[in-house]
Amino acid sequence: MVMARETAPMKPTDVTATRFPSHGNWTREQLRLAFYFYCQTPFGKLHSKNPQIIELASLIGRTPSALAMKLVNFASLDPSITDTGRKGLSGASVLDRETWDAFHANWEDLALECEKLRQSLLRGRGMAAMEPSDTGDHITLTDFTGETRQAIVQQRIKQNFFRRTVLASYRGRCCISGVSDSRLLVASHIVPWSADKANRLNPSNGLCLSAIHDKAFDSYLFSLSDDWRVVLSDRIKASKDSFLQDVFWPTEDKRIDMPERFAPDPYFVSKHRMTMLDTRVAD
Q: Residue 38: what pLDDT?
């Protein structure tokens, strides 16, 4: 992908200039695309030299420095950052807060809206808009047409956003084992995808886990306490499998590595733990 020079941000060609001004107050569209990027980018990469920031700044008509500053404004609204003593810039505006609140109220629609807008801007530059591909599936979209293809594309956008956001928040490492090979990492839902539509893409409903920890968590073989420590189920503690004993038994009462942003919501964690305990009773 061709990167834009920092000194000469280009104006989008397929939308009105009023939606993407190069100076003055930021617009709703600029802020939403900035926050969409903020979610999916590790905190340490929110700086003006990041090539992805240079690229996005060019798309939305702002300088990389202005975009980087706006991203750090968003960080000042993030409790996961401010509660650890770190601070973003203090200049967050009312519209910055409205953008933050809008995403938290409707993650799915906002993620789709932003990805469609981003791809529209790319097409306006004559640049190919890539199909989402980080979801781990191997479905060939050319095998489908019409509504079915659109549904698959939207599903990929959603899954890709959730995965990138959760992995970025946890610095690309399993929060229990520390595994950092992305091929072995899963953005695991605390409350299952099928059980809570409103929070399917909420990164506070996610944990970055290795594939085996994800499967065990999804099967309620372990959960977390209110202070983020591993709670093993009776089923896994009673297991005679030596591999499970070696992998899981040492993790009991171990505190997970907390994310830089979007800490797991205590309500979701409690709900998962209660389901695990109910499963234990049922067994």
A: 96
